[in-house]
Amino acid sequence: MVKIGILTGSTRDSRVNSQVAEWVKSMADKRGDADYELVDIKDYNLPRFNEPIPAIMSKDYTTPEAHVWSKKINELDGFIFVTPEYNKAITSGLKDAIDYLYVEWNNKAAGIVSYGSTLGVTATNDLRLILSVPKVAVVGPSVAMSLFTDFQDMREFSPASFHEDSLNKVLDDVVAWSTALKTIRNKVEAR
Question: What is the pLDDT of residues 53-64, one digit of tens each?
Answer without folding.
Answer: 656 666 777 788
